[in-house]
Amino acid sequence: LVYGGGGHGQVLLDLIRQAGRFHLVGVVDDRLPRGDYLLGVPVLGGGECLIEWRQKGVALAVNGVGGIGNPMAREGVFTQLEQAGFFFPTLVHPRALVEAAATLHPGVQVLAMAYVGPCVEVGFGSLLNVGAIASHHCRLGRVTNLSPGATLAGGVSLGDYTQIGMNATVNVNLNIGKHCLIGNGATVKADVPDGTRVRAGHIWPPLHTTSQTGGTHVSQESPTNSPA
Asked: Which of 31, 81, 119, 215 is the most buried (most CB within 10 A)?
C-alpha cells in the first residue's frame, strides 16, 4: 500500500514500478474517493481501511506524505501504519546510487539521482529527494528530509526530524540538531542547535560586525530558535 496520494505519493508510485521489487496493491488517502484510480493504481479508501487490508495479507506499506515543513505529519502516518500492523520497506530509485557500505533503515526513501556515500547511516523513515547528496560518514536521524539538491559534506550529523531545504549545503563534520529547518539555498558553516530555523539563502552562523559606536550589528536576519 502507498499511504498518501499527493505529489510525493505519486512520485513513489512511479519509483515502485521502476524498481520492480514490489506489487502495488493500491493507494490509501482520506481525500480521494474510494474506487478512483491514481496513475493507474486503485484508491482503496481512507485510513479506516488499513486494518482490513492488513487482515487480507498485505504486510508492507509506504509513507507517501512528504511532511515538508511539518515532519511530525510524516511521523504520524508511520505511527498509524505501525499500529495497523504494517512493515516499511526501504525504497531506492534505480537511478540513485547507494554505496555498499551505507546503511538504510526501514522506511527510508532514496529518489532518483540521489547519492548515499560509504559508511552513511540513514535513520528510520528518512527521505533523500531528487539529487540530494549525503557524503561519506554522515548520520541522519529519524524522519529527516533532504530536499532536492541538498548537499551534506562528509561526516555531517542530522538530528531527528530535521529538514534540509533545496540546494542548501552543510559543511564537513558539522552537527545539526533535532527539529531544525535549514532553508532553501542556505549555507551552514557551524553546528546548529536543536530547533533552529536558518532562513532561506542565509549563512549560518549569522555574520557580525562592530559598529562605529562599539556595538555589535547582525548583518543578516538572525535565525530564530523555534521548532521547525
From this structure: 81
Terminal alpha carbon distance of the chain = 29
CB count in 10 Å sphere of residue 33: 8
Domain boundary among 62, 83, 104: 83
- Tell me the sheet residues that pair with 133: 115, 151
Domain limit, last residue, from 54, 83, 112:
83
> Whole-angstrom Cα distance, residue 150 to residue 185?
8
Residues in the chain, total: 228
Q: Write the pLDDT tens digit of every residue in 141-170.
A: 999 999 999 999 999 999 999 999 999 999
Tell me which residue range forms the domain holding 168: 90-228
Long-range pairs of 80-84 with CB within 8 A, sequence gap ≥ 24: 80/3, 80/47, 80/50, 81/3, 81/50, 84/50, 84/51, 84/54
Tell me whether residue 181 is exposed, middle or buried, using C-beta atoms within 10 angstroms of its C-beta: 0 to 12, 13 to 18, 19 or more. Answer: buried
Please give the DSSP secondary-structure letter assigned to residue 166. T
φ/ψ of residue 50, rounded to 5 = -60, -50
Task: Write the pLDDT tens digit of every residue in 167-185.
Answer: 999 999 999 999 999 999 9
CATH of the domain at 221: 2.160.10.10
Which residues does residue 203 pair with via DSSP β-bridges, in sequence order?
187
